[in-house]
Amino acid sequence: MKAIGFNQPLPISDERSLVDIELPDPEPGPNDLLVAVEAIAVNPVDTKVRASARPAAGSWRVLGWDAVGTVRAVGRDVSGFRVGDRVFHAGAIDRPGCNAQLQVVDARIAAHVPEGLSNEDAAALPLTTLTGWETLFDRLDVQRPVTGAAPALLVIGGAGGVGSITIQLARALTGLTVIATASRPESVDWVKRMGAHHVIDHTRPLAPQVSALGIGAPAFVFCTNGIDRYLPDIVELIAPQGRIAMIDDPETLDIVPLKRKSLTISWEFMFTRSLLGTADIARQGEILRELGDLVSQGKVRSTRTETLGRINAQNLRRAHERLEGGRTLGKLVLAGW
């Protein structure tokens, strides 16, 4: 099968950073689906792994954690899927990714693609939806109010892939007032289209801007990037006993300032369930099925903003370069071979 891989961590400007290769076709295990990949999306995790991982000598690492495709084979213990089904999934970080014509994925973390949704639009959804959903309902526990706080959610980095879908999920599934951060005219317009009630500028101090909204101190803050940079402002603006969630990887993080307000901070890592085989791993498939219902009802839409062409090393390097530039809106997608 065709695939795109790397065998050493290199800057994306180097043509060897991602290479077109040929690999043997994978075989599904008892709980797996074998999926013929038809469209993929690219996420910051792809760039981070590419820049830091060092595959074993003589081997290739295949990235990619957003895919849409057609089921080619079904493991003996799988139920609910059959050959020919159209599915989408985010996969697992410790298994070969979707930058390949064929991918093996645990059926419990996959779901059928909603009718009427194109491959490109569907590919943009799984990883960020799972991240946003788990953040809202498992980490921030937004359905449990914070006494005395404004029923509001601040999303720092609202125009990125995770921020874009989190705004939509919060609007579709909660009664929270959604505040998003964006700093450029095009990103401000984007987060408004995603459903943000208010937009503030993350290049300026956040606390005075939140205060100026006149809605009170928010109960919840989701920081999608730069938590070490934004944490002092978050501690100032959030309500006492509020809850904070993050997804990035600061080298160090001083949480002592959270004590005075009895704040809670949680890390969201979408791959925890698949990586550790948690007892509730099947919840990810359920979330994607619930997402499908929301899409079918018109309550959530794809965050795809651009399709960069077919799935090959050259176009994938372009996508990585764009993500590393830090100015993308929504999700970048590749489709076809």
From TrEMBL:
<dbReference type="InterPro" id="IPR011032">
    <property type="entry name" value="GroES-like_sf"/>
</dbReference>
<dbReference type="Pfam" id="PF13602">
    <property type="entry name" value="ADH_zinc_N_2"/>
</dbReference>
<dbReference type="GO" id="GO:0016491">
    <property type="term" value="F:oxidoreductase activity"/>
</dbReference>
<dbReference type="Pfam" id="PF08240">
    <property type="entry name" value="ADH_N"/>
</dbReference>
<dbReference type="GO" id="GO:0008270">
    <property type="term" value="F:zinc ion binding"/>
</dbReference>
<feature type="domain" description="Enoyl reductase (ER)">
    <location>
        <begin position="16"/>
        <end position="334"/>
    </location>
</feature>
<dbReference type="InterPro" id="IPR052585">
    <property type="entry name" value="Lipid_raft_assoc_Zn_ADH"/>
</dbReference>
<dbReference type="InterPro" id="IPR013154">
    <property type="entry name" value="ADH-like_N"/>
</dbReference>
<keyword id="KW-0862">Zinc</keyword>
<dbReference type="InterPro" id="IPR014182">
    <property type="entry name" value="ADH_Zn_typ-1"/>
</dbReference>
<protein>
    <recommendedName>
        <fullName>Zinc-type alcohol dehydrogenase-like protein</fullName>
    </recommendedName>
</protein>
<keyword id="KW-0479">Metal-binding</keyword>
<dbReference type="InterPro" id="IPR020843">
    <property type="entry name" value="ER"/>
</dbReference>
<comment type="similarity">
    <text>Belongs to the zinc-containing alcohol dehydrogenase family. Quinone oxidoreductase subfamily.</text>
</comment>
<keyword id="KW-0560">Oxidoreductase</keyword>
<dbReference type="InterPro" id="IPR036291">
    <property type="entry name" value="NAD(P)-bd_dom_sf"/>
</dbReference>
